[in-house]
Design goal:
single chain; 165 residues; alpha+beta; 4-stranded antiparallel β-sheet; 3 helices; 10 strands; 24% helix; disordered N terminus
Length: 165
């Protein structure tokens, strides 16, 4: 069962933690608490139209550079800008963490494991698969590769490429 907002209570021997909420601000708070308790995200899902969920597992070592950073916005251009700003601060998009929740695109960024790596992101979205096909081919030609794909009102693709710090 998902935990309510507020202080997370987990037993010392608990290995798995399920977080689910409608509000991204609540999820950010709960993720921060879970990291402090030694958990890391292993899976994510849209739980219905208006709820996001993350399944976490206790890890042996804490995250190297800090907590997760949750991004949420309705505009794809804003998401691309925020993704790249967060990436410049030493974060990378968590694989398979792109969610669509109540007309909002929600992405989870995690601290980089390597300090010598940096990433650049592109967010593509269109109703037409033929347009997305063309845009994906152009992005791949520029060195990007697909991180995640989600269908909502549009087909949304999030791509990344490694850059020099």
């Amino acid at each position: 069962q998902a935990l309510p907002a507020g202080e997370l209570r987990v037993s010392p021997d608990q290995r798995i933690l399920l977080l689910a909420t409608e509000r991204t601000s609540t999820m950010q708070e709960e993720l921060d608490q879970a990291v402090q308790l030694g958990f890391h995200v292993i899976s994510s899902a849209s739980a219905g139209y208006d709820e996001i969920a993350y399944l976490l597992q206790r890890r042996e070592e804490p995250l190297p550079h800090g907590p997760y950073h949750l991004l949420a916005t309705r505009r794809l251009s804003t998401m691309e800008k925020e993704l790249n700003q967060t990436a410049a601060q030493g974060y990378r998009l968590h694989p398979q963490s792109v969610l669509y929740n109540d007309c909002e695109l929600v992405l989870l960024m995690e601290p980089l494991a390597r300090e010598d790596a940096r990433y650049q992101y592109r967010v593509l979205g269109t109703e037409r698969t033929s347009t997305l096909q063309r845009e994906l081919e152009e992005a791949y030609a520029q060195g990007f590769h697909l991180v995640d794909l989600v269908s909502a009102d549009d087909n949304i693709a999030v791509l990344e490429r490694e850059t020099r710090p």
